[in-house]
Every structure is written in structure tokens, then in C-alpha cells.
Design brief:
Length: 555
């Protein structure tokens, strides 16, 4: 049996056009003694001749598109042999005419392989690393992060962590060299740059991998090292903190200018971190104390909202039923109560969770009372937390994991539950989330004394949804839905990234998911990144659209 060709021909190619077909015909007619083989091809645009490997390198250097021999046509952009019936007419050595039945068989049994879509690639699961893959898919498809890592935002060639082993290991021992290679990849930012470079390589038929990033995160996050499932939200929070450290470390990033203010101005703080403003007002003297805190994600207690909505449903049913003055009315009330039980479970919304998060809270329990400096004693108070600063990428964390209180557990005088160990549990259920999120009502700028001049600076678009399947955080499986710009027109489409498997999906399917993490991108990006490495100002949204140079304000 003859040996199979290294590439199976795809049916058709989007790069073929009439001018190329005419060029193929003229070249074949001018070379009557051309050998028919499956090894050597000649570029249509120049005299370069060689194998597939040679031609692929030739394409990278010249961007020439096609190579041809007497029998086949090779697309260097698709990196595949291309079958097209019209190319048979230009062959010097004619073959038998294909019948209509043959044409149908070929067209239905060959692989319709389009050119690789830039950035749309799966990630190999390296052994229960789906938690990392799901978060990485969000990151590699964000334009701000891609500009940073692919634009030399992190100095990989001069990073002291990567270069350090070269100074301390001059041994020729192969085992030492192997250990050195592993040590050279322990910088989180260097490893992340490698992931971006690998994931954005076009026309790759195989998934990318994040081996070095996994090793680097194991070294810098010991509590999450080793084989085993981890919490995706916890890994995300720690990894962006490690990236922040790489940006503010002068030895790693000499281009970073030290911050003389109380808040960090590094790239990752502007992209991922925001600030809360909490006002605590004493109920006795009414003095208000304001404090600020940093956040990388907003925690949404959707389970609490589910219970609240269920309670409201029961109260509404009870209010609508007549008082039990007769046995008939009592039966009606029982029927109304039964009807409530038959209703579908209440579905809280993202806006309801945010409203609850930023609404005033009464601190009246003994454990909640404050030490008022004016009253000189413990007093009850009112607390209100609102968003003071918004990041470019806003992360919503739907709190789905907790500990189930064991039977017989009691609360002591110190407010702590007795030492009985609870079991981890997951809060199932749908949270309705929008494609477009307006954060203005939840900010300090929404108050009468706020100073936001433009409400549109609070508009976010949904870019990624991370879903968890399983019983609790350290078991089960994570996958992600990401909105990606594809094609020449950069049309935004949704894809499902399940480790190495990538599939197109719909907006409706995304909105049906029981989300664990929601990533929203600021629609109108101000100078969030500050000056880039080349001195220009980055003003692009994650989908590639540009905006004016608008300053990010605070109240």
C-alpha cells in the first residue's frame, strides 16, 4: 500500500480566486517536463521550491500564499493541500474526468478545513488543570492583556528571574541542565507571555499548553501546588497578584515608574483592581467614618437573594389568600401554599445582588457594633459600601461554595460554631446576568455629591462566563464561554472552551449557564493602561475598538 501524503487535501480554500487559478495554469503550461511528486512545490510568487516545512518558513518570511506542482496545490496560509475541481484543467498531464458522483463523494468526505482563527485554540488539560484553562481563555482573548504580553509589556529577555539560573549553574551535568531549564520558567509573567504567544499563533491544528505557567504558579502559590482540582476564582485572584508583583518589581521591570501615591498605578491594578468606599455612621452621634478597600472581584451572595425572593413569594401568596374564617378559606390558603411550592425556584438577578451589596446595612448585633470615637463607647451603626473605582475588566464572583452546618453544631458565647466539621456544599441555581451591565447605580458617583461626568464610563460588556460542574470547589470540572472577534471583519462570536475542545455557540446558550465567574469589559476604555512600552496610549476595548483619550475619574 502506498504511503499516505503528509497532508490530506481540504475541499476548497477561501484564499483561492480567479487570478490565482490563471497563474497556476500558466505555470503548469510553461513547465511541460515538470515531475509529478508529492514532495517538492514551487511558490506561485517567486522561484522558491521545497517541501512543506520549507514553504511554511518561506510564507512566514514573505507572506506568499500558494505553492504548486504538476499535481497538487498547497495553501501556505491554511498549511494544507487544497482540492478544487478548477485546478484540474491546468494540469499538463490530464487525468480521467471526474463524474458527478465522484465530485459529490469527494466534497462530502474531505475535511472542510478553514484557515486557523487567530486566538481560538483550546488548552490541553495537564491533569485537573481545567480551573486554570478556563481563566486563561478569558485572559488570552482580552485585547488589553494581549497588547501587554505580546507587546513586550513584560521584559522576558531581561527578566532576572529567568536569567538567574544562567549565573549559578555552569555544570555540564545533563541532570543539572534539565533542572536549570525548569528553573528558567518560574517567572509567572514570563510564563504568561509564553501562553499568549502560543495561543495567538495562527493556523495551529493542535491545542496550546500552559506547562511553564503551571510550574510557575506551583512555585509561587505553594497552597495550590501539586496535582488536584483547585478553585478557579482563588487561582485567578492570586495569579493577578503575582502579575502585579512582576510589574512593580524594579529589578524585573525597570521601565515601571514608582508610584508616589497610596494606590498602585501598575498595569494590572488598572486592568483588574477597583476600590470600594465604605461609610459607617454612628446611630447616636451620626458621625460618619469613610474607609477604602481594594477588590479584584465582587462577591455576589446569590443564595441569600434566592431565599429572600422565595420568602417574598410566600408572603405574596399568603396576602392574596382570604383569612381562614371558614373551612373553605382555610382550604384556599392551603391550596395557595401548595401552589407556591409548585412554582419554579426563584431566579435572582445580577442587578439585585449588586443592589443588596451596595445598600445600607444596619449593624445592630453585639458582634457588629462599632467603637465610636466620639461617643467613647460601642454603638449601633449604619454601613453602606459602594464602588469608588472601576477596573477595565470587572470580575463578578457568584458565591456557590460553602460549608454545610453539621447536625448538632452549636454556637458558643464567642460567636464561633463548635468544632464539629461541616461538609462542603455547592449552591446550585441560575443567576440571571445581562450582556450589558451599567455599574453607575452602584458607584459613589451615583450619589448626589458624586463627580462622574459621564455615565457611559460605567457601561460594561460581557466577555467571558466561567462555569463549574460538580459538588464543590475542589471536585468537578470548569469550562468557559468567551466572546471572540473572528474573521476579517472581526465579528464578535461566542465560543465554548472546554479544555482542548473548542466549539461555536450562541448568545442564548451562554445566558442559560449557571455562572460561577463573570468577566465584563469596560466599553469605553480611558487611558487605563497609561503609556505603553512604545510611548503610545492604549485606548482599546477588548474587542479591538478604539476610544478617545478619557481620564478615569473618581469621586
Amino acid at each position: 500500500m502506498g504511503r499516505c501524503p503528509p497532508y490530506m487535501p481540504s475541499y476548497g480554500c477561501e484564499h483561492l480566486n480567479r487570478d490565482i487559478l490563471n497563474t497556476i495554469k500558466s505555470i503548469r503550461e510553461s513547465r511541460s517536463n515538470w515531475l509529478e511528486d508529492l514532495v517538492h512545490y514551487t511558490c506561485l510568487d517567486c522561484e522558491e521550491t521545497g517541501s512543506f516545512i520549507t514553504l511554511n518558513k518561506h510564507h512566514e518570511a514573505t507572506k506568499h500564499g500558494f505553492a504548486v506542482n504538476a499535481k497538487h496545490l498547497y495553501c501556505m496560509r491554511c498549511r494544507d493541500l487544497v482540492y478544487d475541481p478548477s485546478t484540474f484543467k491546468s494540469r499538463k498531464r490530464k487525468q480521467l474526468q471526474l463524474s458527478e458522483e465522484d465530485e459529490t463523494y469527494i466534497s462530502t468526505n474531505t475535511v472542510p478545513k478553514p484557515c486557523g482563527r487567530e486566538g481560538v485554540r483550546g488548552l490541553f488539560n495537564l491533569g485537573e488543570t481545567c480551573y486554570m484553562n478556563a481563566v486563561l481563555q478569558m485572559m488570552v482573548h482580552n485585547n488589553l492583556l494581549a497588547q501587554y504580553f505580546l507587546g513586550m509589556g513584560h521584559p522576558v529577555h531581561t527578566c532576572p528571574i529567568s536569567r538567574e539560573p544562567e549565573k549559578k549553574n555552569d555544570s555540564d551535568d545533563s541532570e543539572d541542565e534539565l533542572a536549570e531549564d525548569k528553573e528558567q520558567k518560574t517567572c509567572v509573567a514570563c510564563a504568561m507571555t509564553e501562553v499568549f504567544s502560543d495561543a495567538n499563533t495562527v493556523d495551529q491544528p493542535v491545542p496550546a499548553h500552559a506547562v511553564n505557567l503551571l510550574f510557575a504558579s506551583w512555585k509561587h502559590i505553594p497552597i495550590m501546588s501539586g496535582k488536584g482540582q483547585q478553585d478557579a476564582q482563588e487561582w485567578f485572584t492570586i495569579i493577578i497578584d503575582k502579575l502585579h508583583e512582576s510589574a512593580v518589581n524594579p529589578s524585573q521591570n525597570p521601565a515601571f515608574k514608582p508610584n508616589h501615591k497610596k494606590h498602585c498605578l501598575c498595569f494590572f491594578h488598572k486592568v483588574f483592581y477597583g476600590r470600594f468606599s465604605s461609610d459607617v455612621a454612628c446611630d447616636v452621634c451620626h458621625k460618619t467614618t469613610t474607609t477604602e478597600s481594594e477588590y479584584s472581584s465582587i462577591d455576589l451572595d446569590f443564595q441569600k437573594q434566592k431565599k429572600r425572593k422565595k420568602k417574598l413569594m410566600k408572603e405574596a401568596a399568603a396576602a392574596s389568600a382570604p383569612p381562614p374564617v371558614s373551612s373553605a378559606n382555610a382550604a384556599n390558603r392551603r391550596a395557595a401554599a401548595a401552589a407556591v411550592q409548585q412554582l419554579p425556584p426563584p431566579v435572582p438577578t445580577l442587578s439585585e445582588c449588586l443592589k443588596a451589596y451596595t445598600s445600607p446595612e444596619a449593624l445592630f448585633q453585639e458582634s457588629q457594633q462599632i467603637d465610636c470615637q466620639t461617643c467613647k463607647r460601642k454603638t449601633t451603626a449604619q454601613k453602606c459600601t459602594r464602588v469608588r473605582k472601576l477596573p477595565a475588566i470587572l470580575t463578578m464572583h457568584v458565591k456557590r461554595f460553602g460549608m454545610k452546618k453539621p447536625p448538632g453544631a452549636t454556637t458558643g458565647s464567642n460567636g464561633l460554631v463548635s468544632s464539629l466539621i461541616g461538609t462542603p456544599e455547592k449552591y446550585e441555581g441560575k443567576l440571571d446576568f445581562p450582556l450589558v451591565l451599567d455599574m453607575h447605580p452602584y458607584t459613589t458617583h451615583a450619589q448626589p455629591n458624586g463627580s462622574y461626568r459621564d455615565r457611559q464610563h460605567c457601561i460594561y460588556d460581557l466577555e467571558c462566563v466561567v462555569v463549574h460542574q460538580g459538588d464543590h470547589a475542589h471536585t468537578g470540572h470548569y469550562y468557559a464561554f468567551c466572546r471572540v472577534a473572528v474573521g476579517e471583519g472581526k465579528e464578535m462570536k461566542w465560543f465554548k472552551f472546554d479544555d482542548e475542545i473548542v466549539s461555536a455557540t450562541t448568545t442564548e446558550e451562554v445566558l442559560r449557564q449557571e455562572a460561577y465567574l463573570l468577566f465584563y469589559g469596560l466599553r469605553d476604555i480611558p487611558s487605563v493602561c497609561g503609556p505603553s512600552v512604545n510611548g503610545e496610549t492604549n485606548g482599546k476595548h477588548a474587542n479591538g475598538t478604539t476610544n478617545g483619550d478619557v481620564k478615569m475619574e473618581e469621586s
